[in-house]
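User:
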Amino acid sequence: MFRRTLLIAGLLLALSAAGCSGPPSSVAFKLGTVNRDLTYCNSQRLDLYVPRSVPGPHPIVMHVHGGGMTAGDKSDLSPTFLNALASSGYAVASVNYRLAPGSRFPAQIQDVKCAVRYLRAKAPSLGLDGTDIFAFGTSVGGQLVALVALTGPNSLFDVGSYSKESSAVRAVADLFGPANLTQSASGFSPSGIQQVFGKNDRRKLLLASPTNFVGPHSAPILIVQGVDTTKVLKSQSTDLNGDLTAAGASAQLVLVQNMGHMFEQAGSKPIVPSLWQIAQDVVSFFNRERSM
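Assistant: Predicted structure:
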């Protein structure tokens, strides 16, 4: 028995060292109730966190995870952001979407837009306010929510279920998402492009680029970018913000000092503003848009 235990422990250690892991862990939530693994479009699932601090119906914030469109999970939700939003009365829906290479782009944005339509359709039965939907995402999650904001309802990406519902959102927070995939600054490697798009096709890369859809009537976008990242470079966010401003769209840019990609601290100094403050900035941005 002792030898068997050692063998199992050694196997688990080897799997861990090889980058293998078990099922995604669930995000703890003490501020209300959680409905996990609700099935929406294309057999994808979402987790819905509903606060109890204020009575419903609750405005909705959809969270979209990163992972290069080839990895990631709805459990990749920062508790700091979840708690900040829930404390302000927002319900948070963290969504999965189809991943490449099994499902190549535009499957990812089709799912994310379908998730908005699903939430709007199901809002009354879930105690939510389907007229008040926001979104935020990290890395390619930021890219995807920016595409939601910029393409609006009834776009070429609006296919599938709940077609009678709108995929429009009130505002989004794009946290260090790629903006122009035709540039190496986007952080997409040649192998990543191959996995997600099948080949380096400029037309497809433009369809996945928020900068390609900039116009004056998009939903407001808050862009958060670390200045010290070597992944999705700062120019991606500053160029997108500049394009939005020039087009007359509503945009705000927050540059975070001493931060690399995915809130990583770059160097010995803490990130400024802090993670907590960034979360509060996102809440304040959404609150402002709700009041307008």
